[in-house]
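Why do we care about 3D structure at all? Because function follows from shape, and shape follows, mostly, from sequence. That is the central idea of this module. The next example makes it concrete: a single protein chain, its amino acid sequence, and then its structure expressed as tokens.
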Amino acid sequence: MNTTAKYILILSAAAPLLSSCSTPAGPTNATVGATASSGVKPYPLKTCIVTDNGLGSMGDERRIVNEGREIKFCCEPCIDKFLKNPAKYLSKL
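And the structure:
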């Protein structure tokens, strides 16, 4: 097998892995960027569900959809905290 054929074979095998890089990481029930206009239940609070800080107080607010409900956060690290124990934070709603 020549070098060009090897590269084509490697790229063909890697294509599905590379295409998955454009989607957000996280569990399958969390979708980043979805909005209430897509049939998702809107987030009712003006504060981060994890820290109770004002949304946008740590830069741009972050959003995910968890089991059909929009959830908003003050920063990226709060998403990780939420995803480790969603029930703990969802009780605030």
